[in-house]
Amino acid sequence: MKKTLAALAIAVTVALGLSACSATAEPIELAAGTVIVDVRTPSEYAAGHLDGAINIDVQSATFDTELSALPADGDYVVYCASGNRSASAVTRMADLGFTGLTDAGGMSDAAASTGLAIVTAR
């Protein structure tokens, strides 16, 4: 009986742990004109990015300057590799007056939530 209860407890613990790891990205509706912004480095972007995304490296000294070429009232979906840099970029963009911002997190989550394919630079 003890072995059965122990096995059941382990199975429940494993099942709960695995379900916690499999977070699903919420769908993101892309309005016409939405700009997809990849804030990773140019080499990361070249290795693979969301179809149609532009690359503005959040760690670049020219990040703010490159953003100034974009309309602050546009719709933007921002992503990176894991979600850390996209969060930083969205905060910075909001500080610069951008509205319509969506932090899509890491690239795989962004691909899943937007339905956009991951492509490589040509």
Automatic annotation (TrEMBL):
CDD domains: RHOD. Residues 30-119 form the Rhodanese domain. Residues 1-25 form the signal peptide. Keywords: Signal. InterPro entries: Rhodanese-like_dom, Rhodanese-like_dom_sf, Thiosulfate_ST/Rhodanese-like. It comes from the Bacteria. It holds the Pfam family Rhodanese. This is Rhodanese-like domain-containing protein. It comes from Cryobacterium glaciale.
